[in-house]
Amino acid sequence: MSEKLLLLGSSGMLGSYISQQLESNKFEIINAARAFNPAINFNNPNQVISYIDEIKPDIVINAVAIVSLDYCENNPEEADQVNGLTPGLIAEYCYKHDIYFIQISTDHFFHGNGRKHHKEDHPVKLLNHYARSKHLAEKKILLHKTALILRTSIIGQTSQQRSFLDWAIQNINFKENIDLFNDSYSSFLHCSQFVSILQILISKKASGLYNVGSSDIFSKAEFVIMLAKKLDIKITYNFSSVENLKIARANSCGLSTKKLENDFNIKCPSIEAVLNCVVNELKIENP
After folding, report:
1. Residue 91's closest CA among 44, 29, 49?
2. Torsion of Cα atoms, 9 then 154 then 149 then 3, to 10°
3. Domains (ranges, CATH) in the chain?
4. pLDDT tens for residues 176-221?
5. DSSP 8-state code for residue 280
6. pTM for this structure?
7. Which of 110, 120, 141, 184 is exposed most, by the fewest CB atoms within 10 A?
């Protein structure tokens, strides 16, 4: 018998991959997003919780977030509500009603130590309001022992052509004078790889806080240069620094995946595997 899974934020980048790739024979997926359902308004948590109460799912995945750093800085109260307080209230409701709750968090918590693999208990540095609001959610959700929080950074393509991967592909095709951050480190993985790991964790009913990412740490500049090489496209580029950006942001966002790998016998993808996943997706779209 399939489990009823409510996906909050299904119209976003990660939400669209989750909706498409979770096995339909295991889950009855109910897609929910404010774009087509006014009940999914995280500024009104009671409204969202009433919708969950009506649906009565077995599992709730929250992929809703305000991810614009500029918007979060300019609207801190709304960022706190949408990214922090409402997810905490949903987690509390799910805990009381025996619903498995999964929160998609961020890697935007670490700064100043280069290629370090940060463990789940590593001290955080919250440089902007986006990071503060997402960390607020973690603190509230961790009060409920059956919930699962996944710290991660993911790449993928969007229909609006607004993701980092969309930008990278467009600029690689343009070939010339690409500005690349060589001091911003990450361990992101492709959305489809994340979904594969997510499905394992759901089957195990994992709980607590886990990092999900690539096993390697690399700069955004290194990733774009390696992707261009994989696509056999010669590019010219300039190095730039995230320190020059208007809003301060974490620049050392590598995550250690050892806890995840050891607890669930999961092998996280290398940067080579991430690059191959991107190239394979492009080949499917452009045979």
Report:
1. 49
2. 50
3. 3-285 (3.40.50.720)
4. 899 999 999 999 999 999 999 999 999 999 999 999 999 999 999 9
5. H
6. 0.96
7. 120
